[in-house]
Amino acid sequence: MWQFRFEVIVGALIFFIAVPTAEAWDKGIYLTQYTLENPKKLDYLIREAKETGINTFVIDHEYYSSHYAPAIAKVKAAGIKDVTRIIVFSDGGNAQQIHSKEHWEEKLKLANDAIKAGSDAIQLDYIRYSSKEPANPQHAKDVYQIIKWFKTRINAQGVPMEIDIFGEVSYYPSMHIGQDLKMFADSVDGMNPMVYPSHFWPYQKYSAEPYKTINNSLKALVGQFNNNVPFKVHAFIEAANFHYVTKTSNADKQKYLLQEIRAVEDAHDVTGWYVWSANNVYENLFTVLKNNKTKPADFSKNREARVNQNIPQDDETVAKPVQHGFLYRLFHGNRS
Predict the structure, then answer these.
(1) Run of H or E residues at 258
(2) pTM as predicted
(3) How far apart are alpha carbons 199 and 246 in whole angstroms?
(4) pLDDT at position 299, please?
(5) What does the alpha-carbon distance between residue 5 and residue 75 come to, in Å, rounded to a whole number?
(6) Is the predicted pLDDT of residue 214 greater than 50, yes or no?
(7) Which of 1, 105, 119, 298 is spaced 20 to 30 Å from 98 by Cα?
(8) Residue 41 CB partners (closer than 8 Å, separation 6+)
């Protein structure tokens, strides 16, 4: 009898371990290239990421540097995914810039450099017209051609490509900046709506309702595809509301962050969140994650990538998710 029960339990555990969850989940923070190449700062962020279950760093690649590849190797050795952020058109492009293949080629060189360093995904930001441009239905068609051009070349190297989009585009296409989710759907592997409450108008209203603002935006995005989005969705949320940053206590900033996180967690057909802080200040986020149970990130792909790249599997450097799961409690017991 006991042998039978033991075999059933072991079999069930093997099943749960071997079969990945239906919905992988990512939790990420944004880093500038300067932060990446600052050893003291990077070591601190890696330590905090390991402690709080963050599995992704979204890292700028803006210029060539001898320090870049070694720093990326340190991130990946810690079991953290590297999503490379590349600004395509600074603050959005005009017609001349949008149609400049020479400009596209320069940005592709940065992407290629990042891929050689081990990038897990390329994220294109500011791949749009300037918001100052007059509305024109041709804008989205122009941007679509650029996205297809990049995706063909990036995917050919075995790397997925995602793009950042305005939060408002979750609801409808923008003929000013030229972003149309349905048009772009077949030429991206992921989209990252910047659903910052501070960026919706009137900001006083939307900033006061961070959960509702973000959750409704994500519902609208998914609704454009009849609740079956054909690409990954990572919501960009903000570490602090810039309209009130000097007037808000850390405790209130933490409440704001937790509502943002919950809004993403409760959304359907979404695969995670990236937190944006222009200056890479994440102490409030780390406090929130340490003091609240949040949806655990998926580290399986990170470890798989480490094996494929022959990166040493040092338990002291592999990032570990916050341990709330059934298997952890079974083997280690509950810890308060």
Answers:
(1) helix 250-265
(2) 0.84
(3) 17
(4) 86
(5) 42
(6) yes
(7) 119
(8) 35, 280
